[in-house]
Design a protein that fits this description.
2 strands, two-stranded antiparallel ribbon, Histone, subunit A, about 120 residues
């Protein structure tokens, strides 16, 4: 039997024939019983396109196959790295009372934060 994903389950509905008080059904009124609609849509887990990350991963000659889980983890790690770099660069930008993040702010963030030192020289 085919597995249903969450979206298909949420869209699934049943039509029920409602009989009278004695339980007799005349085939008249049909009631739609749907699964509850969720008011809040959960935030997407990833902001970067997975397909592009997978293409980038496959450009490495050592990578022949990449599982969905591996691509997801690489994508999420990339997003977290970019988020951290952007926040640090903004800190240096705000420290100079500027509104625009410039290359010098990114370089200062890279050299000023130990966790980002591996990126030194990448902006040259």
């Amino acid at each position: 039997m085919e597995e249903l994903n969450n979206e298909q389950e949420m869209e699934m509905s049943l039509d029920v024939d409602v009989g009278d008080a004695d339980g007799n059904s005349d085939g008249g009124e049909m009631v739609d019983i749907s699964t509850p609609d969720f008011e809040e849509v959960p935030e997407k887990l990833l902001r970067l396109p997975i397909s592009r990350i997978k293409k980038l991963m496959k450009t490495d000659p050592d990578v022949c196959l990449a599982s969905r889980e591996a691509v997801f983890l690489i994508t999420k790690a990339t997003e977290l790295l970019l988020d951290s770099l952007a926040k640090e660069a903004y800190t240096y930008t705000a420290g100079e009372n500027k509104k625009t993040v410039m290359k010098k702010h990114l370089e200062a963030a890279i050299s000023g934060v130990d966790a980002l030192v591996f990126l030194e020289g990448t902006l040259d």
